[in-house]
Design brief:
This protein has one domain. The longest helix has 31 residues. Helices cover 85% and strands 0% of the residues. The chain contains two helices and no strands. By secondary structure, the chain is an all-alpha fold. The chain is elongated, with a radius of gyration of 15 Å. This is DUF1657 domain-containing protein. It holds the Pfam family DUF1657. InterPro entries: DUF1657 (IPR012452).
Protein backbone atom coordinates (compact mmCIF):
# COMPACT_ATOMS: atom_id res chain seq x y z
CA UNK A 1 0.00 0.00 0.00
CA UNK A 2 1.45 3.36 -1.01
CA UNK A 3 1.65 6.40 1.21
CA UNK A 4 -0.81 8.12 -1.12
CA UNK A 5 -3.41 5.42 -0.68
CA UNK A 6 -2.94 5.46 3.09
CA UNK A 7 -3.45 9.23 3.20
CA UNK A 8 -6.54 8.89 0.99
CA UNK A 9 -7.90 6.27 3.39
CA UNK A 10 -7.24 8.55 6.33
CA UNK A 11 -8.95 11.42 4.49
CA UNK A 12 -12.03 9.25 3.92
CA UNK A 13 -12.10 8.32 7.60
CA UNK A 14 -11.85 11.97 8.65
CA UNK A 15 -14.76 12.86 6.33
CA UNK A 16 -16.82 10.12 7.97
CA UNK A 17 -15.92 11.38 11.43
CA UNK A 18 -16.87 14.90 10.37
CA UNK A 19 -20.29 13.70 9.19
CA UNK A 20 -20.86 11.84 12.47
CA UNK A 21 -19.93 14.93 14.47
CA UNK A 22 -22.38 17.01 12.46
CA UNK A 23 -25.14 14.55 13.33
CA UNK A 24 -24.18 14.57 17.01
CA UNK A 25 -24.06 18.37 17.03
CA UNK A 26 -27.57 18.57 15.59
CA UNK A 27 -28.92 16.01 18.07
CA UNK A 28 -27.21 17.47 21.14
CA UNK A 29 -29.67 19.12 23.47
CA UNK A 30 -27.31 20.50 26.09
CA UNK A 31 -25.57 23.73 25.15
CA UNK A 32 -22.23 22.54 26.54
CA UNK A 33 -22.39 19.30 24.56
CA UNK A 34 -23.35 21.11 21.38
CA UNK A 35 -20.45 23.56 21.84
CA UNK A 36 -18.00 20.71 22.47
CA UNK A 37 -19.09 18.93 19.28
CA UNK A 38 -18.77 22.17 17.31
CA UNK A 39 -15.26 22.76 18.67
CA UNK A 40 -14.14 19.25 17.79
CA UNK A 41 -15.79 19.66 14.38
CA UNK A 42 -13.68 22.73 13.67
CA UNK A 43 -10.50 20.84 14.56
CA UNK A 44 -11.54 17.91 12.38
CA UNK A 45 -12.26 20.30 9.50
CA UNK A 46 -8.74 21.74 9.76
CA UNK A 47 -7.27 18.24 9.74
CA UNK A 48 -9.43 17.30 6.75
CA UNK A 49 -8.27 20.36 4.82
CA UNK A 50 -4.62 19.55 5.57
CA UNK A 51 -5.10 15.94 4.47
CA UNK A 52 -6.80 17.07 1.28
CA UNK A 53 -3.73 19.17 0.46
CA UNK A 54 -1.53 16.15 1.13
CA UNK A 55 -3.63 13.97 -1.17
CA UNK A 56 -3.15 16.50 -3.97
CA UNK A 57 0.61 16.74 -3.36
CA UNK A 58 1.06 12.99 -3.16
CA UNK A 59 -0.93 12.43 -6.33
CA UNK A 60 1.54 14.74 -8.08
CA UNK A 61 4.49 12.78 -6.67
CA UNK A 62 2.97 9.36 -7.31
CA UNK A 63 1.09 9.76 -10.61
CA UNK A 64 1.41 6.07 -11.42
CA UNK A 65 -0.76 5.21 -8.38
CA UNK A 66 -3.77 7.41 -9.19
Amino acid sequence: MTVGSQVKGCYSSIKSIEASLDILTNKAQEVDSKQAFENVGQIIEEIKNDLQKQVVELSKEEPQYK
